[in-house]
Amino acid sequence: MARILRLPRPDDFHLHLRQGESLTAYARREALSFGRALVMPNTVPPIASAASIGAYRASILSAAAPGALEPLMSFKLLPGMGAKTVFECAAAGAVAGKYYPAGATTNSADGLASPGQAAEALAAMEEAGLVLCVHGEDPAAPVLEREEAFLPTMDRILGRYPKLKVVLEHVSTRAALDFVRANARDGRLAATVTAHHLLCTLEDLMGGPLRPALHCKPPLRSAADRDALREAVLSGEPFLFFGTDSAPHPAAAKKSAKVPAGVYSSPVALPALAGLFDGAGRLDALSGFVAARGAAFYGLPPPEGSVELVEEEWEVPEEIDGALAFLGGTRLRWRLK
Ligand code: NCD
Ligand code: ZN
Question: In what helix (H) or strand (E) does residue 60 lie, and over which residues does it extend?
Fold first, then answer.
């Protein structure tokens, strides 16, 4: 008899759904695995006002089946953003604001050169009890050093806004993990971890033929960094929770001469994680990672409902929903039921 794994319906605390036609497929796909998703605001134009939050939420709700996916909304911090805009975004239901260093990743040219450019907005977020989500890379540093190079800026933000809750998104290096460990004690700093940073390394991206499906920011890392993340997540460290950073790009763009950064992991994230946790004998630690700690950090009620996986081998298609799929062409041990 194939084993069945039943989990409380997971939350995804870092998701890109894009806009337009493709949004429907991405939102429906996400709803097969997740009940709630924190939707990132780096659309074009960005989500950076109460009106755009309302419109974007409505388009997500009408894309997924009724009740299937609860979008948790965020807005993008823009240079010079004022307190009024932040309070309006909070009133429109945003739970988080996102800090993108200008030029650090896909659709971030309009981001911040320094925290000072959004000083008023950050103070307003602290006052309103919104979570600050940070893309922690300094684009001025060499590509593999960008995450570590951003840590002094994280430190300044934490020091300047002592009541602000902060999430270091898609933590990928041991250095950043240690920074979060050292600052997480009072419960105001946490980090999301992706499936791709837990499962893959630079070797997978470029050790053989280049795999554009795996190109992302922050980049995949060494086995030592991956293992540090694995150990922390598998042992249930309390300040780490799951965010897919699922970031689909059309397959044609991923096969072009200028490959955009972003891994489409939403369709396979849960089966892939089940394989990792099961292989380590830690299936018991999976639900805390995907369906408890994130909600607790955000002050949300625990997930409702459940999702089931079955131990049944399958091969991940190379393309899903018109995007190159994470782990496309590989065989996984667990599948969504
Ligand atoms: C994301 C995207 O494509 O929007 N890309 C990525 O490589 N992760 C943006 C982001 O979260 O950095
Ligand atoms: Zn992202």
Answer: helix 50-63
